[in-house]
Write a structure and sequence with these properties.
Number of strands: 11
Largest sheet: 7 strands, mixed
Strand content: over 45%
Low-confidence stretches: none
Number of helices: 0
Mean pLDDT: 95
Order of helices and strands: EEEEEEEEEEE
Structural class: mainly beta
Helix content: under 10%
Length: about 110
Protein backbone atom coordinates (compact mmCIF):
# COMPACT_ATOMS: atom_id res chain seq x y z
CA UNK A 1 0.00 0.00 0.00
CA UNK A 2 1.02 3.59 -0.65
CA UNK A 3 -0.42 6.48 1.31
CA UNK A 4 -0.21 9.90 -0.34
CA UNK A 5 -0.79 13.21 1.42
CA UNK A 6 -0.98 16.48 -0.51
CA UNK A 7 -0.37 19.96 0.85
CA UNK A 8 0.14 23.48 -0.41
CA UNK A 9 -3.24 24.34 -1.84
CA UNK A 10 -5.03 27.58 -1.11
CA UNK A 11 -6.42 30.81 -2.48
CA UNK A 12 -4.26 32.84 -4.84
CA UNK A 13 -4.88 35.77 -7.17
CA UNK A 14 -4.58 35.39 -10.93
CA UNK A 15 -0.96 35.56 -11.98
CA UNK A 16 0.21 34.22 -8.65
CA UNK A 17 2.06 31.04 -7.75
CA UNK A 18 1.56 28.01 -5.56
CA UNK A 19 3.66 24.95 -4.86
CA UNK A 20 1.90 21.67 -4.17
CA UNK A 21 3.71 18.87 -2.41
CA UNK A 22 2.84 15.20 -2.00
CA UNK A 23 4.51 12.96 0.56
CA UNK A 24 4.29 9.20 0.29
CA UNK A 25 4.51 6.58 2.98
CA UNK A 26 4.25 2.83 2.94
CA UNK A 27 6.46 2.28 -0.08
CA UNK A 28 9.53 3.84 -1.61
CA UNK A 29 8.45 5.64 -4.77
CA UNK A 30 11.60 5.15 -6.82
CA UNK A 31 9.97 2.79 -9.34
CA UNK A 32 6.65 4.60 -9.42
CA UNK A 33 5.37 6.92 -12.09
CA UNK A 34 4.06 9.99 -10.27
CA UNK A 35 1.51 12.51 -11.36
CA UNK A 36 -0.78 15.38 -10.52
CA UNK A 37 -4.40 15.42 -11.64
CA UNK A 38 -7.16 17.94 -11.06
CA UNK A 39 -10.91 17.98 -10.98
CA UNK A 40 -13.06 21.07 -11.22
CA UNK A 41 -16.75 21.04 -10.26
CA UNK A 42 -18.81 19.37 -12.97
CA UNK A 43 -15.72 18.16 -14.82
CA UNK A 44 -13.92 14.86 -15.06
CA UNK A 45 -10.57 14.38 -13.38
CA UNK A 46 -7.82 15.32 -15.82
CA UNK A 47 -4.09 14.82 -16.01
CA UNK A 48 -2.01 17.91 -15.23
CA UNK A 49 1.52 16.51 -15.25
CA UNK A 50 3.40 13.23 -14.88
CA UNK A 51 6.98 12.28 -14.16
CA UNK A 52 8.37 8.83 -14.80
CA UNK A 53 10.70 6.87 -12.57
CA UNK A 54 13.49 7.98 -14.91
CA UNK A 55 12.55 11.64 -14.65
CA UNK A 56 10.79 12.14 -17.98
CA UNK A 57 7.96 14.64 -17.74
CA UNK A 58 4.76 15.34 -19.63
CA UNK A 59 2.19 18.11 -19.24
CA UNK A 60 -1.32 18.97 -20.27
CA UNK A 61 -1.27 21.59 -23.02
CA UNK A 62 -3.15 24.00 -20.78
CA UNK A 63 -0.32 24.14 -18.22
CA UNK A 64 2.79 23.84 -20.40
CA UNK A 65 5.26 26.59 -19.65
CA UNK A 66 3.52 27.49 -16.38
CA UNK A 67 3.67 24.34 -14.25
CA UNK A 68 6.68 22.20 -13.36
CA UNK A 69 6.56 18.74 -11.84
CA UNK A 70 9.53 17.37 -9.89
CA UNK A 71 10.31 14.42 -7.67
CA UNK A 72 12.70 13.80 -4.80
CA UNK A 73 13.02 10.06 -4.31
CA UNK A 74 15.24 10.51 -1.27
CA UNK A 75 12.36 12.28 0.46
CA UNK A 76 9.61 10.23 -1.20
CA UNK A 77 7.95 13.37 -2.50
CA UNK A 78 6.58 14.82 -5.70
CA UNK A 79 5.92 18.52 -6.16
CA UNK A 80 4.05 20.73 -8.60
CA UNK A 81 5.22 24.32 -8.99
CA UNK A 82 2.40 26.38 -10.46
CA UNK A 83 3.14 29.83 -11.84
CA UNK A 84 1.03 32.38 -13.71
CA UNK A 85 -2.10 30.84 -12.30
CA UNK A 86 -5.41 31.46 -14.03
CA UNK A 87 -9.00 31.22 -12.74
CA UNK A 88 -9.46 28.14 -14.92
CA UNK A 89 -6.79 26.38 -12.85
CA UNK A 90 -9.22 26.31 -9.94
CA UNK A 91 -9.81 22.69 -8.96
CA UNK A 92 -9.05 20.00 -6.43
CA UNK A 93 -5.57 18.70 -7.19
CA UNK A 94 -4.74 15.05 -6.59
CA UNK A 95 -1.41 13.28 -6.30
CA UNK A 96 -1.09 9.89 -8.02
CA UNK A 97 1.47 7.09 -7.81
CA UNK A 98 1.35 4.22 -10.24
CA UNK A 99 3.25 0.93 -10.41
CA UNK A 100 1.12 -2.08 -11.21
CA UNK A 101 -1.54 -0.41 -9.07
CA UNK A 102 -2.67 3.19 -8.87
CA UNK A 103 -2.81 5.13 -5.60
CA UNK A 104 -4.40 8.52 -4.91
CA UNK A 105 -4.14 11.20 -2.29
CA UNK A 106 -7.16 12.90 -0.74
CA UNK A 107 -6.75 16.08 -2.78
CA UNK A 108 -5.98 19.71 -2.03
CA UNK A 109 -8.08 22.67 -3.13
CA UNK A 110 -6.57 25.35 -5.35
CA UNK A 111 -8.66 28.46 -5.93
CA UNK A 112 -7.51 31.22 -8.28
CA UNK A 113 -9.63 34.30 -7.81
CA UNK A 114 -9.48 38.02 -7.09
Amino acid sequence: QVQLVESGGGLVQPGGSLRLSCVASGRILTVYSLGWYRQAPGNQRELVARISSGGSTSYADSVKGRFTISRDDAKNTVALQMNSLKPEDTAVYYCNAEFVRSFWGQGTQVTVSL
